[in-house]
Every structure is written in structure tokens, then in C-alpha cells.
Write a structure and sequence with these properties.
- This protein is 52% helix and 5% strand.
- By secondary structure, it is mostly helical.
- Strands 1-2 form a two-stranded antiparallel sheet.
- Helix 2 crosses helix 3.
- The two termini are 23 Å apart.
Length: 73
């Protein structure tokens, strides 16, 4: 899943370490999410949205068009 975490973090002038500390996770977790290698838990996604004062959908871009469940029939 693509995301705008790095963009939002940089707009606030935060390092990965600072964001990790604010969210209660490791810097490695932030790195992995930013690179799209790891999708956060729903709980963490909500924490991120609250931290940046945006909706979850403003951070994460779901690209599920190829998913049969989303094809409409």
C-alpha cells in the first residue's frame, strides 16, 4: 500500500526518529512504512492520522483495483 507518511513527516520538519518517538514505535517501523514494506496496524494508522490531523485515507492510498472483492461483481 502506498502512503504519504514521508511527505507529511517532512512537512512538519520531523526526523524519522522524532516521529517514531511521538507515535511510540521504532525508527525502523517508520522507515518500513515509508518504503511501503510494512502496513501499520489499524491502531497505529489512527495514531498517525490523529498526529497529523488528517484522515487515514489522506495518509494511505489503497490500490486494490485488482482485488476480485472490489471489482463490483
Amino acid at each position: 500500500m502506498k502512503n504519504r507518511l514521508r511527505e507529511l513527516r517532512e512537512m512538519k520538519g520531523l526526523t524519522q526518529e522524532e516521529l517514531a518517538k511521538a507515535l511510540g514505535v521504532t525508527r525502523q517501523t517508520i522507515i518500513s512504512i515509508e518504503k511501503g514494506r510494512y502496513d501499520p496496524s489499524l491502531r497505529l494508522a489512527f495514531k498517525m492520522a490523529r498526529f497529523f490531523n488528517v484522515r487515514i485515507e489522506d495518509i494511505f492510498i489503497y490500490e486494490g483495483e485488482g482485488d476480485a472483492r472490489d471489482s463490483g461483481g
